[in-house]
C-alpha cells in the first residue's frame, strides 16, 4: 500500500486546491473588485479544464511511462498555483486556474487507475477508496487550514502553501514511486466501443448529475450560509463536510470489497445524498444538528466515486484508465456546470435557496438513471 499512499498524497494536493477556492471567494473578490458570482467562475474554469484534459490526455498519452506523466502533471499543477498566487489581474488568475485544472485532470484519473495495479483484485476497492480518500483529506485538513491562513494573513499565502505541498508531492513520487509497466494503448475501435457502451454512458451520466448537485452547491457555500444562517464563518461547516468526505471515501472501499455490490451501494448513496441536501434548510438553525447534513453530504458525495469507478472498471477491464478518466472528466464537468448555473442564479438575485432546489432536481435525475441501470442487463 506504500505506493498507493504516495498517489494519495498527490490527490491530497488536488483536493486542497479544488475545494479551497470556494472558501477564498470573498478575499479574491476584494483583491480584484469582482462579484462573488464572477469569482465563482474561477472554480468553474478549473473544473472545466479538468474535465476536458482528463479524456484528451488519457488518449494522447496512452502507452507512455505513467510515472513520468504523473510527475509532469503534478509539476504543471504546482507551477499553475504559483501563477495564481502572483496573478496581477483577474484574467491571469483565470488562466492559471485553467492550467491548474489541466494538470489535475491529467493526474487524478491516472493515479486512481494506477492505484489498482499496486494491489490484488481483492483489495482494489480499498486502494480506490484510499486514493480518493487523499483528495477528501485535502478537503478536511487543507481547506479549513487554508481559510484560516487566508483570514489571518492573505488568500495568496494559502496558494503558496499549496505550491509547497505540490513540490513535496513531486519529490516524493520522483524518489519513491517505482516505474511500473504501461498498458499498451487500446485500438481505436475499442475506445469507440467504450464511449458507445450504453452501460458506460448511463454510469457517467449518473456521476454527472450527482456532481452538478453536490459540487455545484459546494462552490457557493459561503453566500448560502450567509443568507440562510446569517453567518459567514465557513470553517465548522467545511470541517463537517470534509470530515464526512474523509469517512465516506475511505469506508466505501471496505464496503465494496466486503459486499461486492457497488450498484446497490450507489443507490443507497444517491438517496442519502439527496436527503442530506433537503435537510440543509430544515436543520440550519438547530444547535449542533445543523452540521449533520453537511457531514452526510460530504460522506455521500465522496463515497459515490469509488463504486462508480469500480463499476466502470468491470465494464471496461481492457480500457480501465480511459473509463476512469471519462468518469473523472464527467464528474468535474458536472461541477463546472453546477458552479456556472449557481453563479447565474446569484447574479439574477434568485436567492441561494434556488441552489438547493437545483441540487435536488439534479439528484432526482441521477436517481432515475440509477434505477434504470439496475435492470438485470446492466447489473454488476
UniProtKB/TrEMBL annotation:
High-level lineage: Bacteria, Bacillati, Bacillota, Bacilli, Bacillales
Compartment(s): Cell membrane
Pfam families (UniProt xref): MFS_1
Transmembrane among keywords: yes
PROSITE patterns in alphabetical order: MFS (PS50850)
Transmembrane segments: 38-57, 69-88, 94-115, 127-147, 159-180, 200-221, 236-256, 268-288, 355-374
Domain Major facilitator superfamily (MFS) profile: 3-377
Protein's organism: Lysinibacillus agricola
Topological relation to the membrane, as annotated: Multi-pass membrane protein
Main location: membrane
Name assigned to this protein: MFS transporter
Signal peptide range: none
Alphabetical keyword list: Cell membrane, Membrane, Transmembrane, Transmembrane helix, Transport
